[in-house]
Amino acid sequence: MTDHTRRRTFLKRGAMTVSGIVLTGCGVLDAPRRPDAAAGADAGAQRRPLRADGTPVRTIDVHAHCVVPQALTLMGMDVFALYPRTMRGGQENVIVIEERLAQMDAQGVDVEVLSINPFWYTQERTLSARIVRLQNEKLAELCAAQPQRFAAFASLSLQHPDLAVRELDHAVRTLGLRGAAIGGSVAGVDFADARFHPVWAKAEELGATLFVHPTGTPELAQHFRGNGWMPNVIGYPLETTIALQHMIFEGVLDKFPALKICAAHGGGYIAASAARMDHGCFVNPGACAHGPALKRKPGEYLGQLYFDSLVFTPEALQNLVRQVGASQVLLGSDHPFPWSARPVAHVLATALPEADKAAILGGNARRLLGLLT
What architecture does CATH give domain 3-34+55-369? Predict the structure, then answer.
């Protein structure tokens, strides 16, 4: 078997073949080895139609991941070295779509909105453009083959904003993707920087959602040494919090009031620290005097943002809803990374009203992303 043949990957469903996607977890470059993706799911669960207040609920998970091996190869990376468990006894790598769908069924998830964490933000124009176009075409191919089960967020070359504007337009208008997945910053540059304004303007024009997923804080590596996987456990939500806070305090959300932003991992710490943001400008007004005059109190901008439900306990989810409103929270699992093996059960376990649960499980995502499922 040739190396070229060994490295081909497929998604298969019956006679249908979708080439070039591995449905695997986020954190491609730094994730610890883990058990099989299905290990956390309730393997004995039977998929039943979900109802709230007697109304059928179609569940939509906005935080799920995959990778495109060919895109990694363009950067000299090998998905099979990063994820050796995907190789089956040295045979040609085949990811059967029924396996992913079975995992989704066991979780109670009807639709996954797939995204790829950006690993290309330091690449030059030509290579970055090739990577994101390849990924977006493969994601669109999968979504077209399984429109009742998958949607996707596009990849963008944000380090080259003019390319990002064109790719976002192509991804949404031509490929039918639902917006774009972005990191927490771009090679150390915060999203509030004016160079990114054309991208936010295009997203606002298209009604496209931007899914903010952190990628790491290498500048804090020294502080994150030791046990506890702190670069992820602390660093990821911190990165998201900083990204969102800059967009608030630097006036991005005032400049683009219709911009739709959904933040992974419950938005990091920003909901819990909203009151502190408000008091900070009151206690030390000089620290808030160098930026634009905001139209609202900082904490009030949380009502302009969306958040996934990945906050681990029913009490934490209830607190998030109290802070931002049920209309701003969407189902998220980080599948197949085992942060939340039972995302639907997590929402159902809260003491929230049935209407709020139904909105979080699918209604909000259907409205935000324009899904017809």
Answer: Alpha-Beta Barrel (3.20)
